[in-house]
Amino acid sequence: MNRPVRSTAFAKPFARLWSAGQTEAAAPSAPTAPLYDLGGLCSRPRARNEAAIRALCSSVNLGDGTALCRALGRYKMFVDVNDAGLSPHLMLDGYWEMWLTEALAATLRPGMVFADVGANLGYFTLLAADLVGSQGRVHAFEPNPPIAGRLRRSVQVNGFAERVSLHECGLSDVEGGEAFLAVPEGEPKNAHITQADAPTAVRIPTRRFDRIEGLERADVVKIDAEGAEEAIWRGMEGVLSARRSMTVFLEFAPVRYASPRGFLDLIAAFGFSLNLLDPERGVRPAGVKDILAAPPHEDRMLVLRR
User: Is residue 192 part of a domain?
Assistant: First the structure.
Protein backbone atom coordinates (compact mmCIF):
# COMPACT_ATOMS: atom_id res chain seq x y z
CA MET A 1 0.00 0.00 0.00
CA ASN A 2 3.05 2.23 0.18
CA ARG A 3 2.74 3.91 -3.21
CA PRO A 4 2.86 7.59 -4.28
CA VAL A 5 -0.30 9.60 -4.81
CA ARG A 6 -0.63 10.72 -8.41
CA SER A 7 -2.84 13.28 -10.10
CA THR A 8 -2.79 12.41 -13.79
CA ALA A 9 -5.86 11.88 -15.97
CA PHE A 10 -7.03 8.31 -16.38
CA ALA A 11 -6.49 7.16 -19.95
CA LYS A 12 -9.81 5.42 -20.69
CA PRO A 13 -12.96 6.73 -18.95
CA PHE A 14 -15.30 4.00 -17.79
CA ALA A 15 -18.75 3.61 -19.29
CA ARG A 16 -20.94 3.08 -16.24
CA LEU A 17 -22.50 6.17 -14.63
CA TRP A 18 -24.15 6.63 -11.27
CA SER A 19 -26.94 9.10 -10.55
CA ALA A 20 -25.71 12.42 -9.21
CA GLY A 21 -25.46 12.90 -5.49
CA GLN A 22 -27.35 9.73 -4.52
CA THR A 23 -26.58 7.15 -1.83
CA GLU A 24 -28.66 4.52 -0.11
CA ALA A 25 -27.54 5.72 3.32
CA ALA A 26 -30.10 7.57 5.41
CA ALA A 27 -30.82 11.11 4.17
CA PRO A 28 -29.64 13.96 6.43
CA SER A 29 -32.30 15.91 8.29
CA ALA A 30 -30.87 19.32 7.33
CA PRO A 31 -29.87 20.70 3.90
CA THR A 32 -26.27 19.96 2.95
CA ALA A 33 -23.99 20.58 -0.02
CA PRO A 34 -24.42 18.07 -2.87
CA LEU A 35 -22.40 14.89 -2.49
CA TYR A 36 -19.77 13.99 -5.05
CA ASP A 37 -21.32 12.07 -7.96
CA LEU A 38 -19.68 8.64 -8.26
CA GLY A 39 -20.41 8.76 -11.98
CA GLY A 40 -17.49 11.15 -12.24
CA LEU A 41 -15.10 8.31 -11.53
CA CYS A 42 -16.31 6.65 -14.71
CA SER A 43 -16.81 9.60 -17.01
CA ARG A 44 -14.55 12.56 -16.23
CA PRO A 45 -10.76 13.15 -16.30
CA ARG A 46 -8.97 12.23 -13.11
CA ALA A 47 -7.60 15.70 -12.41
CA ARG A 48 -11.11 17.15 -12.55
CA ASN A 49 -12.41 14.49 -10.16
CA GLU A 50 -9.58 15.02 -7.72
CA ALA A 51 -10.19 18.76 -7.67
CA ALA A 52 -13.92 18.29 -7.09
CA ILE A 53 -13.34 15.81 -4.26
CA ARG A 54 -10.70 17.99 -2.65
CA ALA A 55 -13.08 20.96 -2.71
CA LEU A 56 -15.58 18.96 -0.63
CA CYS A 57 -13.01 18.06 2.04
CA SER A 58 -13.53 19.01 5.64
CA SER A 59 -12.34 17.52 8.90
CA VAL A 60 -12.66 18.00 12.65
CA ASN A 61 -10.42 16.70 15.42
CA LEU A 62 -12.52 14.79 17.96
CA GLY A 63 -9.84 15.00 20.64
CA ASP A 64 -9.36 11.28 21.27
CA GLY A 65 -6.71 10.58 18.66
CA THR A 66 -9.45 10.46 16.04
CA ALA A 67 -10.58 12.96 13.44
CA LEU A 68 -13.77 12.91 11.40
CA CYS A 69 -13.39 13.79 7.72
CA ARG A 70 -15.27 13.60 4.45
CA ALA A 71 -13.82 11.07 1.96
CA LEU A 72 -14.59 10.96 -1.76
CA GLY A 73 -16.88 13.93 -1.22
CA ARG A 74 -19.50 11.48 0.11
CA TYR A 75 -18.50 9.48 3.17
CA LYS A 76 -17.91 10.43 6.79
CA MET A 77 -14.72 8.68 7.92
CA PHE A 78 -13.12 8.37 11.33
CA VAL A 79 -9.35 8.54 10.86
CA ASP A 80 -6.25 8.36 13.05
CA VAL A 81 -4.57 11.72 13.74
CA ASN A 82 -1.31 9.91 14.60
CA ASP A 83 -1.24 8.15 11.23
CA ALA A 84 1.22 9.85 8.90
CA GLY A 85 0.69 7.58 5.89
CA LEU A 86 -3.01 7.50 4.98
CA SER A 87 -5.11 9.77 7.18
CA PRO A 88 -3.52 13.06 6.02
CA HIS A 89 -4.47 12.26 2.42
CA LEU A 90 -8.06 11.54 3.41
CA MET A 91 -8.31 14.70 5.52
CA LEU A 92 -6.71 17.09 3.02
CA ASP A 93 -7.43 15.47 -0.37
CA GLY A 94 -10.41 13.20 0.32
CA TYR A 95 -9.15 10.29 -1.79
CA TRP A 96 -6.51 7.56 -1.86
CA GLU A 97 -4.92 5.75 -4.82
CA MET A 98 -7.30 7.16 -7.39
CA TRP A 99 -6.26 4.59 -9.99
CA LEU A 100 -7.54 1.78 -7.76
CA THR A 101 -10.61 3.82 -6.80
CA GLU A 102 -11.46 4.15 -10.49
CA ALA A 103 -10.85 0.49 -11.25
CA LEU A 104 -13.08 -0.69 -8.39
CA ALA A 105 -15.82 1.73 -9.44
CA ALA A 106 -15.67 0.22 -12.93
CA THR A 107 -15.82 -3.35 -11.60
CA LEU A 108 -18.35 -3.36 -8.76
CA ARG A 109 -22.07 -3.67 -9.53
CA PRO A 110 -25.24 -3.67 -7.43
CA GLY A 111 -25.80 -7.03 -5.75
CA MET A 112 -22.15 -8.13 -5.82
CA VAL A 113 -20.18 -9.59 -2.91
CA PHE A 114 -16.90 -7.77 -2.23
CA ALA A 115 -14.09 -8.75 0.16
CA ASP A 116 -11.74 -5.99 1.35
CA VAL A 117 -8.74 -7.84 2.78
CA GLY A 118 -6.56 -5.33 4.57
CA ALA A 119 -9.36 -2.79 4.83
CA ASN A 120 -7.49 -0.38 7.11
CA LEU A 121 -9.72 2.64 7.87
CA GLY A 122 -12.30 1.50 5.35
CA TYR A 123 -11.95 3.86 2.39
CA PHE A 124 -12.52 1.07 -0.16
CA THR A 125 -15.01 -0.65 2.15
CA LEU A 126 -17.27 2.42 2.10
CA LEU A 127 -16.95 2.88 -1.65
CA ALA A 128 -17.81 -0.78 -2.24
CA ALA A 129 -20.75 -0.70 0.19
CA ASP A 130 -22.21 2.20 -1.78
CA LEU A 131 -21.62 0.54 -5.16
CA VAL A 132 -22.99 -2.93 -4.33
CA GLY A 133 -26.13 -1.41 -2.82
CA SER A 134 -28.56 -2.85 -0.33
CA GLN A 135 -28.73 -6.20 -2.17
CA GLY A 136 -24.94 -6.63 -2.11
CA ARG A 137 -22.52 -7.54 0.66
CA VAL A 138 -19.10 -6.33 1.78
CA HIS A 139 -16.72 -8.31 4.00
CA ALA A 140 -14.02 -6.07 5.50
CA PHE A 141 -10.97 -7.66 7.16
CA GLU A 142 -8.93 -5.51 9.54
CA PRO A 143 -7.03 -7.15 12.44
CA ASN A 144 -5.56 -3.98 14.01
CA PRO A 145 -7.99 -3.28 16.90
CA PRO A 146 -7.92 0.57 17.04
CA ILE A 147 -8.10 0.86 13.25
CA ALA A 148 -10.94 -1.68 13.09
CA GLY A 149 -12.80 0.35 15.72
CA ARG A 150 -12.66 3.47 13.56
CA LEU A 151 -13.71 1.46 10.50
CA ARG A 152 -16.75 0.15 12.37
CA ARG A 153 -17.78 3.68 13.35
CA SER A 154 -17.43 4.84 9.74
CA VAL A 155 -19.60 1.98 8.46
CA GLN A 156 -22.28 2.82 11.00
CA VAL A 157 -22.35 6.58 10.52
CA ASN A 158 -22.74 6.17 6.75
CA GLY A 159 -25.71 3.82 7.13
CA PHE A 160 -23.94 0.74 5.73
CA ALA A 161 -24.02 -1.51 8.80
CA GLU A 162 -26.65 -3.82 7.30
CA ARG A 163 -24.51 -4.66 4.29
CA VAL A 164 -20.97 -4.70 5.77
CA SER A 165 -19.50 -7.51 7.88
CA LEU A 166 -16.34 -6.48 9.75
CA HIS A 167 -13.95 -9.33 10.54
CA GLU A 168 -11.34 -8.36 13.16
CA CYS A 169 -8.91 -11.13 12.24
CA GLY A 170 -6.07 -11.85 9.89
CA LEU A 171 -6.49 -14.14 6.90
CA SER A 172 -4.04 -16.97 6.25
CA ASP A 173 -3.98 -20.64 5.29
CA VAL A 174 -4.74 -21.67 8.91
CA GLU A 175 -8.27 -21.71 10.31
CA GLY A 176 -8.48 -20.91 14.01
CA GLY A 177 -4.80 -20.07 14.36
CA GLU A 178 -3.04 -16.98 15.60
CA ALA A 179 -0.36 -14.63 14.39
CA PHE A 180 1.43 -11.50 15.54
CA LEU A 181 0.82 -8.17 13.83
CA ALA A 182 3.56 -5.52 13.89
CA VAL A 183 2.19 -1.98 13.58
CA PRO A 184 4.84 0.59 12.61
CA GLU A 185 4.52 3.81 14.61
CA GLY A 186 2.69 6.42 12.53
CA GLU A 187 2.13 3.96 9.65
CA PRO A 188 -0.68 1.54 10.58
CA LYS A 189 -1.39 0.91 6.90
CA ASN A 190 1.95 -0.91 6.77
CA ALA A 191 1.09 -3.34 9.59
CA HIS A 192 2.41 -6.82 8.81
CA ILE A 193 2.73 -10.32 10.24
CA THR A 194 5.91 -10.70 12.30
CA GLN A 195 7.60 -12.74 15.02
CA ALA A 196 6.11 -12.80 18.53
CA ASP A 197 9.03 -10.90 20.10
CA ALA A 198 8.60 -7.77 17.93
CA PRO A 199 8.17 -4.75 20.26
CA THR A 200 4.91 -3.56 18.69
CA ALA A 201 3.43 -6.99 17.95
CA VAL A 202 -0.28 -7.52 18.59
CA ARG A 203 -1.64 -11.06 18.91
CA ILE A 204 -4.43 -11.64 16.37
CA PRO A 205 -6.62 -14.60 15.39
CA THR A 206 -6.40 -16.02 11.88
CA ARG A 207 -8.99 -17.60 9.62
CA ARG A 208 -9.14 -19.09 6.14
CA PHE A 209 -11.05 -17.15 3.50
CA ASP A 210 -12.76 -20.34 2.31
CA ARG A 211 -14.16 -21.10 5.78
CA ILE A 212 -16.09 -17.83 6.13
CA GLU A 213 -19.79 -17.97 5.32
CA GLY A 214 -20.79 -15.83 2.37
CA LEU A 215 -17.39 -15.64 0.72
CA GLU A 216 -18.14 -18.62 -1.49
CA ARG A 217 -20.13 -16.04 -3.51
CA ALA A 218 -17.36 -13.45 -3.68
CA ASP A 219 -17.33 -11.56 -6.98
CA VAL A 220 -14.53 -9.07 -6.31
CA VAL A 221 -11.67 -9.31 -3.80
CA LYS A 222 -9.04 -6.72 -2.89
CA ILE A 223 -5.96 -8.07 -1.06
CA ASP A 224 -3.45 -5.63 0.44
CA ALA A 225 -1.76 -7.47 3.29
CA GLU A 226 1.91 -6.41 3.33
CA GLY A 227 3.42 -9.81 2.59
CA ALA A 228 0.67 -12.20 3.70
CA GLU A 229 -0.81 -12.42 0.21
CA GLU A 230 0.44 -15.91 -0.62
CA ALA A 231 -0.84 -17.43 2.65
CA ILE A 232 -4.18 -15.68 2.09
CA TRP A 233 -4.35 -17.07 -1.46
CA ARG A 234 -3.74 -20.59 -0.17
CA GLY A 235 -6.52 -20.05 2.33
CA MET A 236 -8.86 -19.20 -0.57
CA GLU A 237 -8.39 -22.54 -2.37
CA GLY A 238 -11.81 -23.91 -1.43
CA VAL A 239 -13.49 -20.87 -3.02
CA LEU A 240 -11.10 -20.69 -5.97
CA SER A 241 -11.65 -24.36 -6.83
CA ALA A 242 -15.32 -23.65 -7.58
CA ARG A 243 -14.14 -21.80 -10.72
CA ARG A 244 -16.71 -19.01 -10.41
CA SER A 245 -16.12 -15.77 -12.28
CA MET A 246 -14.10 -13.49 -10.04
CA THR A 247 -11.84 -10.43 -10.12
CA VAL A 248 -9.03 -10.15 -7.58
CA PHE A 249 -6.99 -6.99 -6.98
CA LEU A 250 -3.79 -8.22 -5.31
CA GLU A 251 -0.83 -6.13 -4.22
CA PHE A 252 2.37 -7.90 -5.25
CA ALA A 253 6.03 -7.24 -4.42
CA PRO A 254 8.47 -10.06 -5.36
CA VAL A 255 10.68 -9.54 -2.32
CA ARG A 256 7.87 -10.71 -0.03
CA TYR A 257 7.67 -14.27 -1.38
CA ALA A 258 10.07 -17.22 -1.21
CA SER A 259 9.31 -17.91 -4.89
CA PRO A 260 7.56 -15.01 -6.67
CA ARG A 261 7.30 -17.03 -9.88
CA GLY A 262 5.88 -19.97 -7.95
CA PHE A 263 3.20 -17.71 -6.47
CA LEU A 264 2.26 -16.42 -9.94
CA ASP A 265 2.12 -20.01 -11.22
CA LEU A 266 -0.22 -20.88 -8.36
CA ILE A 267 -2.49 -17.99 -9.33
CA ALA A 268 -2.53 -19.06 -12.97
CA ALA A 269 -3.31 -22.67 -11.96
CA PHE A 270 -6.76 -21.52 -10.85
CA GLY A 271 -7.53 -20.11 -14.29
CA PHE A 272 -6.85 -16.42 -13.69
CA SER A 273 -5.46 -14.12 -16.35
CA LEU A 274 -2.65 -11.81 -15.22
CA ASN A 275 -3.03 -8.06 -15.58
CA LEU A 276 -1.38 -5.01 -14.06
CA LEU A 277 -3.17 -1.91 -12.83
CA ASP A 278 -1.01 0.87 -14.23
CA PRO A 279 -1.56 4.20 -12.43
CA GLU A 280 -1.45 6.04 -15.75
CA ARG A 281 -3.03 3.62 -18.24
CA GLY A 282 -5.39 1.51 -16.18
CA VAL A 283 -5.66 -2.28 -16.41
CA ARG A 284 -3.44 -3.90 -19.03
CA PRO A 285 -2.47 -7.53 -19.76
CA ALA A 286 0.85 -8.66 -18.30
CA GLY A 287 2.93 -11.80 -18.43
CA VAL A 288 5.00 -13.32 -15.66
CA LYS A 289 8.15 -11.72 -17.07
CA ASP A 290 6.49 -8.28 -17.09
CA ILE A 291 5.50 -8.61 -13.45
CA LEU A 292 8.87 -9.90 -12.27
CA ALA A 293 10.82 -7.30 -14.26
CA ALA A 294 9.97 -4.55 -11.75
CA PRO A 295 12.31 -3.78 -8.83
CA PRO A 296 11.68 -6.50 -6.22
CA HIS A 297 10.65 -4.03 -3.47
CA GLU A 298 8.16 -2.18 -5.69
CA ASP A 299 4.48 -2.71 -4.87
CA ARG A 300 2.38 -3.39 -7.97
CA MET A 301 -1.33 -4.04 -8.10
CA LEU A 302 -2.21 -7.17 -10.02
CA VAL A 303 -5.70 -7.57 -11.48
CA LEU A 304 -6.57 -11.26 -11.71
CA ARG A 305 -9.63 -12.20 -13.76
CA ARG A 306 -11.47 -15.31 -14.78
Answer: yes
